[in-house]
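Morning - adenosine-5'-diphosphate inputs below, output right after.
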Amino acid sequence: MSSFSIRSSTIRLGIFISTLVIAIIIFFQLAWLRKVYRYEEKEFDHSIVKVIRGLYEDLDVTAYSTTPLSELIEKPRAHLYLARISLPVNTDTLSSYLQYELEDFDIFTRCQFALYQAAGKQYVFSFNPGSATPKNAGSFPVFNRPYDYIALYFPNRRQYILSQMNFWIITSAVLLFILLLFGGSLFYFYRQKFLQEAQRDLIHNFAHEFKTPVSVISLAADVLKDESILAKPAKLATYAGIVQYQANYLNQQVEKLLEFAYAESRKLQLQKEAVDMHQLIRTAVDNLAPGITKKNASLIFKLDAPQHIIQADKDYLLIVITNLLDNAVKYAREPQIIISTAVTHTKFLLLVKDNGIGIERSEFKKIFKKFYRVQQGETYVAKGFGLGLPFIKKIMAAHGGKIKVDSWPGTGSVFQIELPLN
Ligand code: ADP
């Protein structure tokens, strides 16, 4: 049992580290894909600049032969290039030349182009290959410039660049899929392991829980079998009492397990009725009387709630209160328990405060998980299955209520339940 918390923290650490590693790999993979995209974009730009340079050299369309290319080519949009010209150009030659050059540079994406004349501030020719009306480039954007230019427009530039990256995108997707599969199986494996361990611990606890009462009963039976006891009625009564106490205890434990198993398999069906919470608290205390006496626990009642009759399931609420009180007795050396009630305008509150070993803040959430038990010192000595609080939580949720805990290790804990008044 004591290795349980180490095991579960190892499990958590394992899941945490693998999640972190997977997240880092995914992050780098995405950053890398982005880099490849930027690289492909640059390659595309270079190829277009080369095409335009060929245009200048072979078609003789500019008189600015000494001007650097960077001043002649402008890129007002990601997919649009303006190449400054100063000499008349034959549009048919331009069309076939551009198509030839683009293919030569392996740019197999649609290119629309247009000739802009500064004098008329408009396009005097446009060409849209592949369209029904190739001589009409449609909504080709006009950029007013004081010089003539050829506009090259690549409407599918992004798709084209992405298609160039197909190999990397597919390998990344495969890697991502493998990582997710790996993460999923890791989680599944840890879950299976956790359940397997929980099951083993339950059996261990079960045996532990039942061994002592059974041997006590067996010892008492031995004494009772001895005929000489008939002459000592006081002793007879004591031993009969021991048998009864242990049998009751065993019965309670079995009921606890059965209730939990039953509640686990289905949604809680509440049988609501008017329940007097103060009365129910007394019933719970009576049920626990043997344990309270045995540990010499002192109970202080501050049942101040002016309204203490609520609509709820009596049997389930009795389990809630009994479990809270049982824990308060169980986890303290010399239990001093304060049971108080109060109401707010919508809720009924019950607080069980003890002076027990307390619970670390980091355990607050975990103690409401099935089979979880804080593994340290005395907790290990106190018997249990780690099923009480999860069951209480379930019962409270079914009632539209809540359970809260606050605790100070070494000083004590307070458990508070809240139930709707209506
Ligand atoms: P069990 O008591 O059978 O182990 P519970 O579900 O009732 O199971 O409680 C879960 C765990 O929460 C306990 O094992 C114990 O570590 C801690 N706990 C519950 N109540 C108290 C309390 N009053 N004081 C200290 N620890 C507590």
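Note: Residues 323, 327-328, 331, 354, 356-359, 367, 373-374, 379, 384-390, 413 surround adenosine-5'-diphosphate (CB under 6 Å).

O.
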